[in-house]
Amino acid sequence: MTAQIIDGKAFSDRVASFVADRARAFTSVLGRPPGLAVVLAGNNPASQVYVRNKGLRAKACGFHSVQHDLPETVREEDLLALVDRLNRDPAIDGILVQLPLPAQVDAERVLQAIDPAKDVDGFHPVNVGLLGAGARDKALVPCTPYGSLLLIASVLGDDLSGLEAVVVGRSNIVGKPVAQLLLRHNATVTIAHSRTRALDAVCRRADILVAAVGRPEMIRGDWVKPGAVVIDVGINRVPAPDKSAGKTRLVGDVATAEAADHARAITPVPGGVGPMTIAMLMANTLTAACRREGRPAPDMTAVR
Q: Is 176 labeled as catalytic in the residue annotation?
């Protein structure tokens, strides 16, 4: 069996096009575009690249996009004051504070200060609770799990009744929310992790296998049930001596070449789930804008 490679970049482009079309309609009716504010504190190179890409995608979608760059030495109270101003800014529908934050700042306190209705990362306890209670239509859903679900649905459809899903990873950012989304779509879900007994046997039960454990190529090919859909959320940098001394390459949590001999479909790393995260941030911003204006939120399941 040779697995279908799920092209996250191509799918993310379709999501962005869908969002841009509906953002134009929003702007035409409301007289203003959806607004996204991104806050970057410090000089983490990876964060700088990620924030720049978010800004470019937001502008391509026709959003009002603003970026607030703060020094590494920013005081927590100053960052909280900025969040408060953005909460009250009528032109801003979505607020994203890029993590990690400098050591002197309590990230949890900052994230909890964001208005849940503008929390487009989906990390606020109110949004976490709404998703956990099954009220997805009122929550803002974390972007990576949301994008993972759309990639699964692109292969299997929206109704996952009768299918067994195994999520390897129990983080609040990916593992738990993706499990809740799969439950909502009628899958039977097991959350496993690095300490799960006989993890390989648990994985072999999965019609849908989501790997989000943060260990390079931990999931081997013979752990994959024949015909399973495999979503690899892991992004790990490992040495690449074949390139040259000191060089590295990105790999996922799944040994992709091995798993492709068993799976029906699989996401690559890079180019799988990663591009979907920014695309779903745009979708969440549009959703937040529509809700604030009392308009129907876009149905992202329409994207195929």
A: no
